[in-house]
Amino acid sequence: MIMTKPTFSSIRSGFLATAILLFTLLSSNVVMADDAAPDVLVKNVTNEVLEIVRKDKDIQSGNTKKAIELVEAKVLPNFDFGRMTTLAVGRDWKSTNATQQKTLTDEFHTLLVRTYSNALTAYKSQTIDFKPLKMAAGDTDVTVRTEVKQAGAKPISIDYSLEKADGTWKVYDVVVGGVSLVTSYRDQFKQEISVGGIDGLIKSLQAKNQASAATVKK
Amino acid sequence: MKVDAARRVSGFCTLLMAASLLGGCATSGNSRDPLESLNRATFAFNETVDKAALKPVAQGYEAVVPAKARDGVSNFFGNIADVFIGVNNLLQGKVRDAVDDVGRVLVNSTVGVLGVMDVASDWGMEKHDEDFGQTFGRWGVGSGAYLVVPLFGPRDVRDTAGLVLDSVTDPVGYIDNIPTRNTLLVTRVISDRAALLPAEKVIEEAALDKYSYIRDGYLQRRRSLIHDGAPPRDDVDSAAESEKKQASAAAKDGNLYAANTAVK
Questions:
Q1: B78 vs B70: CA distance, rounded Å
Q2: Which residues pair with A161 in a beta bridge?
Q3: H-type helices in chain A, by residue range?
Q4: Chain B residues whose beta carbon lies within 8 Å of the beta carbon of residue A111
Q5: Scanning every residue of chain A, which has its alpha carbon at the shortest distance from the alpha carbon of B218?
Q6: Do B201 and A118 touch (CB under 8 A)?
Q7: Chain B residue closest to A169 (CA)?
Q8: Confidence of residue A166 (pLDDT cuts 50, 70, 90)
Q9: Is the CB of B126 inside 8 Å of chain A's CB atoms?
Q10: pLDDT exceeding 90 applies to what percent of chain B?
């Protein structure tokens, strides 16, 4: 790794990124207010986020902290973490109490945000193709299909599962190249629960998040 | 050379047999992983080898060799691989894709200077990802148990058989000049490993149990590849459906938090 001092251009691009971020934050409220179609929502968010990453040398060189901030601001409001956690925990969700459910959702939230942000720092110059949406009128559960194109490699599909509730579409799963971000955790969660019960799972999630948070600060 | 290949095949078969025998006494929670205890041991072995030898070399390679040159190396081996991707597409009856693959090899071997530049991608000829394991899957061969192969990593029984054919038919293995052959084999391993470095951080920080995370990811990924990105809905999806019903049932029971998460 080559260490570089912050140069004028990197400061300028950092400033630009912040300006864009602020602008999109302000404007996103307007976009969110009307009942955007799920494919439009995915497209807007993806384009906005990549636009920022393309201009942010820090994120490109692996600054996870900065990527997390970006994800928290732009991506998260469109995710349904409650639903995601229910899906990942599976059958054992029934035997959890409200406090456990809240802690589980919060910890899983932290874990997924970091995973997503780490993946974002690996972004180079790939382009995204948005596939036409297959959706009947009145559908409340759809899959928006996209494809990441990269030179010298087979394109990778990224599919977003969205559900509509209270007039808003929210993402409840992201499937990358056929691998579901959420169900990939089901076996691991089952494993933890069979060893230490729900509280055992909560403890390992907390330990994992604390360990990773320590490396992010560095 | 033939004898060499035959020996490699028989070695793999012995390994497979040994694995299935051991599987009889291993206990496991995951139905697709009856050999879990053996697999975990092999996984730990692979991780140790990687940490001690392969990863440092790959990191060194990344630090010393400029990105452009690394792309060239990776394209060079990708071009060789395209020949076999084409063969496998043909075996799976995907003639159009096979024609594309042959076109890619022709363009990249000539205009792309022996495959160092991936000109074909720039010209809109998409790269594919096929191997004998996928071909077997396409032909209806069952996947069999999940298997961690020493030094090669995650496979299932079907993909291990595919891997045997992949390595037996690997053109690099048939180069008669042994120093050249070995240099190419080693360079390819390093180049492939270096390509995985960015993904590693994501996995390290995402996984509660790296073994399970990689296993489940591998099984889902292979399933998707064999069905060319459109696998039929399976128990994972129907499980998602049943979770949904469960959540609304919980709502009726007066479990408010579950109700919220289901309705949201």
A1: 12
A2: A143, A173
A3: 8-33, 38-55, 57-60, 64-74, 81-89, 98-121, 186-217
A4: 206
A5: A179
A6: yes
A7: B264
A8: confident
A9: yes
A10: 59
Instruction: Report the pLDDT value the prediction gives residue A21, as an integer from 0 to 100.
Output: 52
C-alpha to C-alpha distance for B173 and B152, rounded to whole angstroms: 16
Run of H or E residues at A159: strand A153-165
Report CA-CA distances (Å) from A197 to A68, A79, A91, A190, A207.
Answer: 30, 27, 13, 9, 16
Q: Tell the burial category of B179 from Cβ atoms under 10 Å away from its Cβ (0-12, 13-18, 19+).
A: exposed
Residue B85, pLDDT score: 94
Least Cα separation, residue A24 to chain B (angstroms): 25
Predicted confidence (pLDDT) at residue A133 exceeds the cutoff of 60: yes
The pLDDT of residue B116: 93
- Mind telling me how many Å the CA of A85 is from chain B's nearest CA? 9
Binary contact (A187, B225; C-beta < 8 A): no
Q: Which of residues 196-215 of A touch B (CB under 8 A)?
A: 204-205, 208, 212, 215
β-pairing, B146-149 vs A127-130, is unpaired
B95 burial type by CB count under 10 A (0-12 exposed, 13-18 middle, 19+ buried): exposed
CB B62 within 8 A of CB B194: yes
* Residue B10 pLDDT level (bands cut at 50, 70, 90): low
- The answer to whether the pTM exceeds 0.90 is no
Q: Say whether pLDDT at B242 is over 90.
A: no
Cβ of B212 and A105 within 8 Å?
Answer: no
CB A85 within 8 A of CB A180: no
Residue B50 pLDDT > 50: yes
**Do B82 and B104 contact (CB within 8 A), yes or no?**
yes
Closest by CA position to B216, among listed A186, A112, A156 = A186
Please tell me the distance from the alpha carbon of residue A27 to that of residue A49, in angstroms, as a whole number.
14
Site of tokens 């300028």: A12
Length of chain A: 218
Q: Examine the pLDDT at B14 and tell me if it is beyond 60.
A: no
State the pLDDT at residue A215: 73
**Radius of gyration of the CA atoms of chain B, in A:** 22
Q: How far apart are alpha carbons B14 and A124 in whole angstroms?
A: 43
Tell me: the pLDDT tens digits for B149-166? 999 999 999 999 999 998
Does residue A147 surpass a pLDDT of 80? Answer: yes
pLDDT tens for B194-233 read 988 888 888 888 899 999 999 999 999 999 999 888 777 6
Q: What's the token pair of residue B239?
A: 């499980």
Give the separation between CA A174 and CA A71, rounded to whole angstroms.
14
Under 8 Å between Cβ of A196 and A203: yes
Q: Is B128 on the interface with A (CB under 8 A)?
A: yes
